[in-house]
Amino acid sequence: MENSNSYSPYSSSSVDSTKPSPSESSVNLSLSLTFPSTSSQRETSQDWPPIKPRLRDTLKSLRLRQRGYNTALFVKVYMEGVPIGRKLDLSTFSGYKSLLENLSHMFDTSVICGTRDSKNHVLTYQDKDGDWMMVGDIPWDMFLETVRRLKITRPERC
Amino acid sequence: MDRAIKLQLSTSEMNYFPDEVIEHIFDFIPSHRDRNSISLVSKSWHKIERSSRHQVFIGNCYAISPERLIRRFPCLRSLTLKGKPHFADFNLVPHEWGGFLHPWIDALSKARVGLEELRLKRMVVSDESLELLSRSFVGFKSLVLVSCDGFTTDGLASIAANCRNLRELDLQENEIDDHRGQWLNCFPDSSTTLVSLNFACLKGETNLSALERLVARSPNLKSLKVNRAVPLDALTRLMSCAPQLVDLGVGCYENEAEPESFEKLMAAIKKCTLLRSLSGFSEVAPICLTAFYPICENLTSLNLSYAAELQGNHLIEFVQFCKRLQLLWILDSIGDRGLEVVASSCKELQELRVFPSDPHDEEDNNTAVTEVGLVAISAGCPKLHSILYFCKQMTNAALITVAKNCPNFIRFRLCILEPNKSDHITSQSLDEGFGAIVQACKGLRRLSVSGLLTDKVFLYIGMYAEQLEMLSIAFAGDTDKGMLYVLNGCKKLRKLEIRDSPFGNAALLADVGKYETMRSLWMSSCEVTLGGCKRLARNAPWLNVEIINENENGRMERNEEDEREKVDRLYLYRTVVGTRKDAPPCVTIL
């Protein structure tokens, strides 16, 4: 199997076009990583092939349903000081990293996990008991089970 | 266009007629391009034309300002506006890039323009704008929003509540924050004028009784497209009180429909003898499609591109009876065999779109479409003029055959899922195949190419695609020559969008004047550098040259600019109003 790291989109030599077998499907996914992609989600490319978001979401939901996963996990996300929140489907993220990347993109600012300080927007969540907690302390799967709402805090003024 | 020329020749005679007569003649020319031509004939024609123009189309909202638009066309009634570039559909443009509706509504409202219709594509629309819109234009009749975002169902509530003459509310593929409010309740009881209602893209719950009451009091309703939250029994009730429907978008069905409710649905469907267009069907059990058998012979338009749960054989069983179909949008689960059935059954077919059900090749299935299906369609459907086809493999031989079978293509878009994929039989590039398409299809206006392609395909395109207006290129070409062939050859080119191709400054800068004849150029992940873009901006003050960066801070660090840095995303467009003031930090306008 071709070494995916040496793959170049600009080469004019023919590409190995044999269909990858299931055991090599992970290699196929990594092929998409070498395509220059400007999206923040690296697990599968969000900008290729060129299909619209609604179709993309429909197919993703179907895939998850077929695999027996609970699909949509919508939570509201608020930025402190901004009245209108956004809604996010957490099931579309693979972990904290892709969640943070997406939030940073959505709110046009750097959002991190960690303690509040004077510089950064920190992400917090409300769990099923109603308590506000720091995001990132528990394994992602546990987080998905307990999270109810998200809040992005403003940098603390000294 | 011909009519405009004939009118031009008889101008001297025509000027003896009073203005109102000339204006009446112009009324017969609705095409905005022809009207633009008319306005160039003479000063008096320009004056008459602009004061009688009711419909205006603005392909790029930053090409002109609302104030100038209103000054020129004070009698504006119907406005189409497009915002973000096309590749925004595929996550390549930051959400906050621009395309805000508000300045337009603000200006139109202040000038008391008698706006009746507004059609928007890829614009950012706020609830405030929708509220202002709903209060400003008494005669407002039609709102069509395609791929827009920034608003919630609260904005829809304003439209419902305040637009007394609303005939059309059509929401296609928008990102709408669903507050699960009662926007459907906001249509007053006196509202009976609805002709078209499409809220298929809304993700939240729907107030079913409000919807039913609204449909029941709208005798002119021809088009109804509901969202996933409308279950089977509600759909039955809706169809029973609207048997006059021409266009129906179905919501979500439960998996197991009880025989009795299924019978009721079939009875309601049988009464809809005017039904011609069907869409929706996300999350449906196959049996639900069969409920529509009684009317499938009447269908001219069928969109099953969201029906991901339906398998090939269900699709085939249904489509084979749709003998009058002109438009078919479907998933590739229909397979080559299914397309062969379409080719033999749907002789009236004009437009076909086949979407990928497995875009990232994660499933191990062999039933997706190949070049075989494409050839079958081209052979069986003589009226075919528009195609969008996603597939995993293609051959030059197939494309050459398709070109021979279908010289009438206006739109030809082929997307081979794996970039740079060669002809799977000969392992050669697909230059010859696409070359055959552009050579045979003399009327081709839109083309998307994919697969393994060298500069040669662009030589062909430049040579033969004389009517080409829009070209989309991804992972193609070898050198700057490729892009130059296109820029030099395609005289009617308006939109060029390129991603991940090795075109650089030499191609970008060769003919700066060309961009004045085009609406826009997009280049992402190519070889153009910051220095090249700066030079272009200096030499072409009539262009907005935008660099879109996506780094940590979202801002181009001014001190560390390196002219040799490759530009991530470049978007340039002609404009008469200079640099826009609403660009976000991640966009630098040179």
TrEMBL record, chain A:
InterPro entries: AUX/IAA_dom, AUX_IAA, PB1-like
Keywords annotated in UniProt: Auxin signaling pathway, Nucleus, Repressor, Transcription, Transcription regulation
UniProt cross-references to SUPFAM superfamilies, sorted A to Z: CAD & PB1 domains
Biased composition range(s): Low complexity: 1-40
PROSITE patterns: PB1 (PS51745)
Gene3D superfamilies: Phosphatidylinositol 3-kinase Catalytic Subunit, Chain A, domain 1 (3.10.20.90)
Residue ranges of the region described as Disordered: 1-52
Protein origin, superkingdom: Eukaryota
Domain (PB1): residue spans on this chain: 72-157
UniProt KW Membrane keyword: no
Compartments, record wording: Nucleus
Subunit structure: Homodimers and heterodimers.
Family: Belongs to the Aux/IAA family.
PANTHER family: AUXIN-RESPONSIVE PROTEIN IAA17, AUXIN-RESPONSIVE PROTEIN IAA31
Name of the protein: Auxin-responsive protein
Automatic annotation (TrEMBL), chain B:
Metal-binding as UniProt keyword: no
Gene3D superfamilies, per the entry: 1.20.1280.50, Ribonuclease Inhibitor
Span of domain F-box: 17-58
Keyword Transmembrane attached: no
Membrane-spanning intervals of the chain: none
Pfam family, one: F-box_5
Keyword annotations from UniProtKB, A to Z: Auxin signaling pathway
Superkingdom per UniProt: Eukaryota
Name of this chain's protein: F-box domain-containing protein
Species per Swiss-Prot/TrEMBL record: Brassica napus
Source organism phylogeny: Eukaryota, Viridiplantae, Streptophyta, Embryophyta, Tracheophyta
